């Protein structure tokens, strides 16, 4: 398993180098597939997806990939699997964008991508951005701009941590360190609060923080019943 879970994409040299290390070759020699699905549950999502693909928003798709495709999860249930699975297995990096984590999780499951991930990630590098990172952990969020079954999962739980991106970001006032600390106390796994210059690199069972910014790890409070 090779994951790079970012808050805001490949935002600095350290995160860039971590991506190249996971790929095992330069970005210019690597193919990528971008999943924009999560952003459609956010106001203005279609335009944000366009900007990410064009490289004018977040250093993600516009890194100089050898090739770049778009994988829209909501379309996949209507397609024959061989039309997209074969291409996906040949791709070096799966870029999963931000937006609404619960909406993304739902369509990962409905499309069949979730069940492919374990085998896919033996070769393909998973690169998440915000919700695209959170969906792989044990903690996800929802913005409520969609209609999904109430029991729908908010994340896939593939990595046994919680991730809180955009630490102390001016656009997300609720993401202050004090607020995240309170939330972390309610989560039974380690919680990583990371800013937009930080990422979590995961290889098999190893978790490494890559940062040129601010981050903090909160460990769960253990209680003992007598």
Describe the model.
By secondary structure, the chain is of the alpha/beta class. It has a single domain, classed as Class I glutamine amidotransferase (GATase) domain (Rossmann fold). It is built from seven helices and ten strands. It has helices at residues 13-23, 45-54, 85-89, 101-111, 113-120, 131-134, 177-184, and strands spanning 2-6, 31-35, 67-70, 93-96, 125-129, 162-164, 191-194, 198-203, 206-211, 215-218. β6, α7 and β7 (191-194) form a beta-alpha-beta unit. The chain is globular and about 45 Å long. The mean pLDDT is 91.
CATH homologous superfamily placement? Class I glutamine amidotransferase (GATase) domain
Quaternary arrangement of the chains shown?
Answer: single chain
Radius of gyration: 17 Å
Distance between the termini: 39 Å
Count of helical stretches: 7
Categorize the overall geometry: globular
Which architecture per CATH? 3-Layer(aba) Sandwich
Mean pLDDT equals: 91
Q: What is the N-to-C order of secondary-structure elements (H for helix, E for strand)?
A: EHEHEHEHHEHEHEEEE
Low-confidence stretches: none
Biggest sheet, spatial arrangement of strands: 3-2-4-5-1-8-9
- Reported by name, the CATH topology is Rossmann fold
Helix content: 25-40%
């Amino acid at each position: 398993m090779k994951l790079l879970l970012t808050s805001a994409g490949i935002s600095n040299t350290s995160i860039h180098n971590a991506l190249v290390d996971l790929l095992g070759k330069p970005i210019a020699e690597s193919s990528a597939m971008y999943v924009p699905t999560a952003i459609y549950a956010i106001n203005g999502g279609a335009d944000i997806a366009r900007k990410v693909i064009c490289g004018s928003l977040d250093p993600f798709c516009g890194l100089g990939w050898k090739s770049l495709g778009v994988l829209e999860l909501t379309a996949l249930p209507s397609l024959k699997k061989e039309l997209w699975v074969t291409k996906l297995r040949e791709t070096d990096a799966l870029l999963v964008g931000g937006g609404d984590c619960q909406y993304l999780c739902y369509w990962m499951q409905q499309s069949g991508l979730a069940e492919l991930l374990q085998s896919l990630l033996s070769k393909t590098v998973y690169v998440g951005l915000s919700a695209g990172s959170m969906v792989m952990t044990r903690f996800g969020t929802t913005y409520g701009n969609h209609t999904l079954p109430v029991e729908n999962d908010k994340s896939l739980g593939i990595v046994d941590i919680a991730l809180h991106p955009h630490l102390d970001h001016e656009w997300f006032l609720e993401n202050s360190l004090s607020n995240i600390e309170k939330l972390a106390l309610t989560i039974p796994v380690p919680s990583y609060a990371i800013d937009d210059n930080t990422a979590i690199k995961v290889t098999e069972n190893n978790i490494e923080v890559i940062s040129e910014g601010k981050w903090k790890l909160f460990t769960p409070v253990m209680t003992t019943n007598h």
